[in-house]
Amino acid sequence: MIKKIFLLVVLIVLFVGKNIFSQHEDQMKETESKVPELEQFHEVIYSIWHTAYPEKDYAALRSYAGEVNSLAEKIYSARLPGILRDKKAKWEKGIDEFKKSVNGYDSKAAGKDDAALLKAAEVLHSKYEMLVRVIRPVSKEVDEFHQQLYVIYHTYLPNKDYKKILSVSGKLVEKAEAISKMKISQKLEAKAEKINSAATDLLKATKDLDSLKKTTKGKDINLAVEKVHSKYQSLEELF
């Protein structure tokens, strides 16, 4: 009897542990700015753009058409992770443009006009790069902040789990500080002043949230999180 009870307890622990691990794994996937199907397409577009295209290897360009079509189909039906939900409209617009470029490439690969095939390869590469830019994080520091904020804003806040929000608010401050110290790329130098100002505002809002650790008022925490989220959006728009 004791052995049966022990076995039952072990099975319950294993089951609960597996569910917790599975939930954690799902959450990790939702906070990663990645679309695996897009990454899989990179191999064929790399061969097209960096080998066949510059060498004007028309036979090779035509041979890639089948692979381009099959991999593109997976991209059309790919699901964006939760952290990229605000990119959905741009993603769908990009998909429409990408699909046209795939159809154009397929059509030119079936024809005999080599110059038109080269142009189609160029357009295909361009539209693929545009899709990548839609989901690419603006910077390592901003992406890491967003990953933490995503869990707070879309999991803890809706569930009114204020203890968890305040248990990670210190980490959010650290990530906001990293943003305020990050090096702004040469491409964004014209916006440097606005980016620095927005980063300062974000850091202040994040510190204001963290300062609420001694409060029990959910309303104050709600407002503070909403302010952090708003300041983050203002910063991201500058990129």
What is the compact description of this entry?
The protein is mainly alpha-helical. The chain is built from ten helices and no strands.
Radius of gyration: 24 Å
The top level CATH class name of the largest domain? Mainly Alpha
How many separate domains make up the residues?
2
Compute the average pLDDT. 88
Q: Please, how many helices? A: 10
Number of strands: 0
What distinguishing features does this structure have?
77% helix, Four Helix Bundle (Hemerythrin (Met), subunit A), mainly alpha, 239 residues
Overview of this protein structure:
This protein has 239 residues and is mostly helical. The chain folds into two domains: 36-135, Four Helix Bundle (Hemerythrin (Met), subunit A); 140-237, Four Helix Bundle (Hemerythrin (Met), subunit A), CATH 1.20.120. The chain has ten helices and no strands. The protein has helices at 2-30, 36-52, 58-63, 65-76, 88-110, 114-135, 140-156, 162-181, 192-210, 218-237. The longest helix is centred in the first third of the chain and has 29 residues, at 2-30. The radius of gyration is 24 Å and the shape is elongated. Mean pLDDT is 88; it is low at 15-28.
